[in-house]
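Please fill in the sequence for the structure shown.

STRUCTURE ENCODING:
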């Protein structure tokens, strides 16, 4: 998306996300690094830039934040490409869910051997999971863990794949849908205890919004299935927000 914006001589990146959006922070960070103006449209008109550390960090990175009601946000969040009224603005949909976003996520598997039986990761807009899926070894099954309640993971992936003109075989994807813990950014004592225990014992950290739910799901998946001699890749998609 950033390369497309630069190639079209856009000076402002306009995008969308929730209060804990990794995508917003990523856009703010790279915009600040490259000297591009960024604007983040945030779901929730009750929020401010000081509502949490992530939004504060986005603001500190010179991202302009605009807070919308949920209804208004849902009307806006699909804007994609150059703004028809001003060709200096490049729009990125919520979570980077467009052709450029998926293409970028196709590069993730290039950082490893790409020879796994299972790959597992968190799922929000399905952008990352579709990009990873598109570049997987044919023998690999993708496990996705939606962090939203009532989210039809496979249907959403099919929709985005069609939009991006990418082939998609739903038989190569399994959605572990029982690990949202109440919905986006929701948690409970069980998940909090799991994350705390994991972080105390491990050499990398997880958090309860994204990666904690995935690791919890993976732990349950391993307990319920015979995975001897199977190779599993856990993709850590961020969310720690330690500044």
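FILLED IN BY: designer on duty
SEQUENCE:
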């Amino acid at each position: 998306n950033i390369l497309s914006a630069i190639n079209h001589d856009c000076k402002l990146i306009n995008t969308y996300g929730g209060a804990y959006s990794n995508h917003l922070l990523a856009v703010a960070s790279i915009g600040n690094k490259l000297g591009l103006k960024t604007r983040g449209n945030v779901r929730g008109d009750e929020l401010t830039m000081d509502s949490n550390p992530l939004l504060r960090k986005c603001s500190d990175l010179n991202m302009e934040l605009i807070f919308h009601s949920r209804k208004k946000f849902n009307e806006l969040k699909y804007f994609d490409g150059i703004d028809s009224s001003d060709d200096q603005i490049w729009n990125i949909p919520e979570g980077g869910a467009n052709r450029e976003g998926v293409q970028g996520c196709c590069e993730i598997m290039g950082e490893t051997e790409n020879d796994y039986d299972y790959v597992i990761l968190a799922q929000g807009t399905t952008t990352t999971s579709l990009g990873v899926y598109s570049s997987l070894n044919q023998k690999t099954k993708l496990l996705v863990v939606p962090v939203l309640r009532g989210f039809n993971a496979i249907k959403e992936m099919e929709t985005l794949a069609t939009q991006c003109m990418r082939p998609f075989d739903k038989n190569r994807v399994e959605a572990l849908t029982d690990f949202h813990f109440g919905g986006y950014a929701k948690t409970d004592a069980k998940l909090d205890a799991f994350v705390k225990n994991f972080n105390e014992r491990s050499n990398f950290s997880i958090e309860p919004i994204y990666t904690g739910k995935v690791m919890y799901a993976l732990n349950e998946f391993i307990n319920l299935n015979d995975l001897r001699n199977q190779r599993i890749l856990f993709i850590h998609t961020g969310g720690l927000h330690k500044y």
